Amino acid sequence: MSKQLHAPWCWVHELDDYVQMFDLSAQDLTLKILDCAAGPSSFAAELTQRGGRVVACDPLYEKVTEKVEMKTHEMIDALMEKVSENQDQFSWHTVASPDELKHEHHGTAELFLEDFKNDKQRQRYRGETLPTLSFTDYEFDLALCANFLFDGLQRPEPEFITACIKEMCRVAREVRVYPLLNSEGEIAEEVGPVMMQLQQDDYGVEIREVDYQFQKKSNAMLRVWPNTCVVE
After folding, report:
1. 31 to each of 24, 62, 173, how far by Cα in Å?
2. From CA 145, how far away is CA 33, in angstroms rounded?
3. Distance CA 148, CA 153 (A)
4. pTM over 0.85
5. Is 229 a residue whose pLDDT tops 80?
6. Annotated domain spans of the chain
7. 41, 51, 141 from 96: Cα distances, Å
8. Nearest residue to 72 (alpha-carbon basis) of 37, 104, 118, 41
9. In Å, how far are 2, 72, 102, 179 from 97, measured between CA atoms?
10. Under CATH, which number does the domain 15-226 receive?
């Protein structure tokens, strides 16, 4: 039986979201970080302003600035429509309503868009598409991937997810993936097969509880590292 397709989530996150989603310590934020499938999130913009070292990559960045801005607003509108239709999936404690969430997302997106416009040489924003990245081996200390591998794809296949994680492990000494939910807000059935394949291929894997839980079942991330690296 073929898998039913559902529209993917296209979230817009700020730095504080990333800190909670990926359990980032103050020390983590001093590392050289790659944000994969970053979309219009403002993590790179905000961390750069604080003196951090971060590169964001996404096929979105291949577009000219005007089209990136248009696409960003389209993504937020589509996201808010989906949130409104699925309000029971969320905990409305820190955000009171979909309207308030939409306002916050537009504010976050503006931080991204301003930084994207200023990065004319595309040093912080690279048009890259998983599972093939142009970066050198272990160019980064940490690679992050939010809302793409399990809940951001219409037809997530374990082989594709595993290939993406392995490629991030090639360019970074540690990879963190969030969330482990599918597009319906349930634990993705692909998590088990992906973890098993990574372990069989000699990668270290760990599921770690995190503080971020806007979606009711989203309080965990996947942490992966190549066993040739020493990870504390």
Report:
1. 10, 26, 11
2. 11
3. 6
4. yes
5. no
6. 15-226
7. 21, 32, 36
8. 41
9. 35, 21, 9, 21
10. 3.40.50.150
